[in-house]
């Protein structure tokens, strides 16, 4: 059995990233919290099956992902908000450009197929290697690389981004910051 106090501290340290991943999968804060709670309970109950020295975060993400899919199979009759229209009608859009861009990105991310969204979140947002993400998803590394590539391409299409020059501050803000750095 694992060292219970050390194992407990490791579980608690992983809660923020687990919640972020759960929120990205479920798109609902209450469901995300339930997923994280269920993941922690299952991990605690099965802590003897965790091998010390291996990646605890990947193990927890796998538990959370499996729990998410189990719950999805049980909830087939619920209304799905795949295009985000229900969510959009409940939220207030911020006036700042950065917040607006983030909101646009979230909507674009929600439009990706589930396997691509999952792959890009694991790699891009959570910092897993392709190998770790492939292990979490139970597929080949090449499959993960393909999903991430297709997700990036699709996000660029949805957001109408044609190159790296479209990232960062708008042209007016760029002029102000470059003028300030010269002065």
Automatic annotation (TrEMBL):
<keyword id="KW-0804">Transcription</keyword>
<dbReference type="InterPro" id="IPR039425">
    <property type="entry name" value="RNA_pol_sigma-70-like"/>
</dbReference>
<keyword id="KW-0238">DNA-binding</keyword>
<dbReference type="GO" id="GO:0006352">
    <property type="term" value="P:DNA-templated transcription initiation"/>
</dbReference>
<feature type="domain" description="RNA polymerase sigma factor 70 region 4 type 2">
    <location>
        <begin position="104"/>
        <end position="155"/>
    </location>
</feature>
<dbReference type="GO" id="GO:0003677">
    <property type="term" value="F:DNA binding"/>
</dbReference>
<keyword id="KW-0731">Sigma factor</keyword>
<dbReference type="InterPro" id="IPR013249">
    <property type="entry name" value="RNA_pol_sigma70_r4_t2"/>
</dbReference>
<feature type="domain" description="RNA polymerase sigma-70 region 2">
    <location>
        <begin position="16"/>
        <end position="77"/>
    </location>
</feature>
<dbReference type="InterPro" id="IPR007627">
    <property type="entry name" value="RNA_pol_sigma70_r2"/>
</dbReference>
<protein>
    <recommendedName>
        <fullName>RNA polymerase sigma factor</fullName>
    </recommendedName>
</protein>
<dbReference type="Pfam" id="PF04542">
    <property type="entry name" value="Sigma70_r2"/>
</dbReference>
<dbReference type="InterPro" id="IPR036388">
    <property type="entry name" value="WH-like_DNA-bd_sf"/>
</dbReference>
<dbReference type="InterPro" id="IPR014284">
    <property type="entry name" value="RNA_pol_sigma-70_dom"/>
</dbReference>
<keyword id="KW-0805">Transcription regulation</keyword>
<dbReference type="Pfam" id="PF08281">
    <property type="entry name" value="Sigma70_r4_2"/>
</dbReference>
<dbReference type="GO" id="GO:0016987">
    <property type="term" value="F:sigma factor activity"/>
</dbReference>
<dbReference type="InterPro" id="IPR013325">
    <property type="entry name" value="RNA_pol_sigma_r2"/>
</dbReference>
<comment type="similarity">
    <text>Belongs to the sigma-70 factor family. ECF subfamily.</text>
</comment>
<dbReference type="InterPro" id="IPR000838">
    <property type="entry name" value="RNA_pol_sigma70_ECF_CS"/>
</dbReference>
<dbReference type="InterPro" id="IPR013324">
    <property type="entry name" value="RNA_pol_sigma_r3/r4-like"/>
</dbReference>
């Amino acid at each position: 059995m694992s060292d219970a106090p050390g194992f407990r501290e490791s579980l608690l340290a992983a809660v923020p990233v687990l919640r972020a991943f759960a929120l990205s999968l479920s798109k609902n804060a209450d469901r995300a919290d339930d997923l994280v709670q269920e993941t922690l309970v299952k991990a605690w109950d099965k802590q003897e099956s965790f091998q010390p020295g291996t990646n605890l975060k990947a193990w927890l993400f796998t538990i959370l992902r499996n729990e998410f899919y189990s719950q999805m199979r049980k909830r087939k009759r619920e209304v799905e908000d795949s295009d985000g229209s229900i969510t959009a009608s409940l939220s207030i859009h911020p006036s700042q450009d950065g917040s607006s861009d983030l909101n646009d990105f979230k909507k674009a991310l929600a439009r990706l197929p589930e396997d691509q969204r999952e792959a890009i979140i694991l790699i891009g947002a959570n910092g897993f290697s392709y190998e770790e993400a492939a292990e979490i998803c139970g597929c080949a590394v090449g499959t993960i690389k393909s999903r991430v590539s297709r997700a990036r391409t699709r996000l660029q299409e949805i957001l109408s981004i044609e190159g790296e020059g479209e990232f960062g501050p708008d042209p007016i803000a760029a002029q102000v910051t470059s003028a300030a750095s010269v002065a």
